[in-house]
Amino acid sequence: MNSLRDRLLRLTKSNDEQRPDRNATASDAAETEAEGGEWRQLEARICRTDGGAFVLRRRRYSLAGRHGRYSLGELNAINNRMNALASASDRPILGPEQLLFFDTETTGLGVGAGNVPFMIGCGYLDGHEFVVEQLFMRNPAEEYHALLHLGSLLKRFSHVVTYNGRSFDWPVLKNRFVLHRLDAPEEPSHLDFLYAARSLWSRQLASCKLSTVEQQKLGIFRGHDLPGSEAPERYRQYLITRRARDMEEVFLHNERDIVTLAVLAVHFQHLLSGTLHKTPDIVPEDEVRVAGWLDKLNLHSLAQEVLHAALHQAGQLKREQLLEAAALCKKWHDYDRAARLWRAYCQRSAGTLHALEPLIELAMYYEHRRRDPEAALHWSLQARRLLERRMSLSRRQAQDRALLREIDHRLDRLRRKIDKPAQEMMHFH
Q: Is residue 294 classed exposed, middle or buried when 0-12, 13-18 and 19+ CB atoms within 10 A define those classes?
């Protein structure tokens, strides 16, 4: 036991010796560089703390300024509706000033101890301005002091807003706090917009990357922008050259990501509040997707309002949106409206194999809801003919044979229902 204890003590001592001196400032060369104005040219400064320093860049945006289709001033409309997207519902969002938007630039893609967040970008409302605050570590020794600053900043907010931060940014930051023997901040309520974006647009957009979403849904076009994947290499270059200008494009990319997150919050607030008329370029097919998304979030009344607005322009809906809308109506027990949508789908898809599902739905609707066996028989026969065509072209024989047996069973039942009144009439006479 003593031997084991001795070894542990030696290991601890060795680790302490390797730990950067937190009281040490940056090298004289780096200090001279900063004081010469190179960091000030990037609108950054060296933030000195008790025993250390790091680079702090702060940018202020007017709330009146527009970014794509929205202004940052619309952040003030954010309310507890946004809590539907939070990871924990025990902390309601009482106002936009409780939101901290953040994004990190890291040396790698994993969440392990070897991945270092060399830049941490934060954004928040401050009176009549939106502030973007970026923490940058010129060397590993500065990470400790940057984390201290971040920890104090996090205490001011009840919710953090990220894009894939729940799976990446937050675990990375938490690991860094632990490695520096700092108390990790309390797990915040998390608004990770990636999940909402995927739920809404995964089948519509080529990708749900933030850069794609901001162009297609927010109307933000950055022009020249450093791809996020190149940020680690720029940082490695900086560690060699010590030139602040090598990081300029990384600062700008991170700043734009933070602003985009804020604008995306405005967009989601409109969707969650039913104010889609304030969302530019909204079309009926978008409303159907939003209705389905709202329903998943248990905002059922609002989902119905949004869908009914979309159905006023049902002629503009694509076939797949007709099916999505019909499925929602069926879920809400609005079977008559669902049937109208299924019939519209079948009319547009006449003669195609795509119409099998709505044909079967119509057969069940007329048999069980309308008590109309003749109409149910009509739709069942159409479904059977379409299934036979599919079976001749498809290899899904086992699945299709089971479905064929189901349809034949329905046909037999319907024919008996139709024949029964006639037999009873003959027996009466």
A: buried
What does each of the 429 residues of the chain score in pLDDT, given as a tens digit?
A: 445 445 444 544 444 433 444 444 445 455 544 444 889 999 999 998 887 899 999 999 999 999 999 999 999 999 888 989 987 656 777 789 999 999 999 998 876 667 899 999 999 999 999 999 999 999 989 999 999 999 999 999 999 999 999 999 999 999 999 999 998 888 778 999 999 999 999 988 999 999 999 999 999 998 888 998 899 999 999 999 999 999 999 999 999 999 999 999 999 999 998 887 666 677 888 899 999 999 999 999 999 999 998 998 888 898 889 999 999 999 999 999 999 999 999 998 876 777 889 999 999 999 999 999 999 999 999 999 988 888 887 666 777 888 889 999 999 999 988 887 655 555 554
* Separation CA 104–CA 167 (nearest Å): 13
pTM comes to 0.83
Q: What gap in Å lies between CA 178 and CA 184, rounded to an integer?
A: 6
CA distances to 350, 375, 376 from 368, in Å: 24, 11, 9
Rounded-to-integer distance, Cα 279 and Cα 281, Å: 7
Strand 159-162 to strand 189-192: parallel, antiparallel, or no bridges (unpaired)?
A: parallel
Rounded CA-CA distance 24/141 in Å is 8
Handedness of CA 212, 214, 218, 222 (dihedral sign): negative
What does the alpha-carbon distance between residue 368 and residue 383 come to, in Å, rounded to a whole number? 17
Q: Are 217 and 183 in contact (CB under 8 A)?
A: no
Residue 70, classed as helix, strand or coil, is strand
With contact defined as beta carbons under 8 Å apart, do 116 and 107 qualify? yes
Q: Residue 145 and residue 182: Cα distance in Å, rounded?
A: 11
Residue 245 near residue 252 (C-beta atoms within 8 A):
no
- Give bridge partners of residue 106 from the DSSP assignment: 117
From 81, 129, 132, 125, select the one nearest 102 (Cα to Cα): 132
User: Which of 249, 222, 225, 223 is closest to 235 using CA atoms?
Assistant: 249
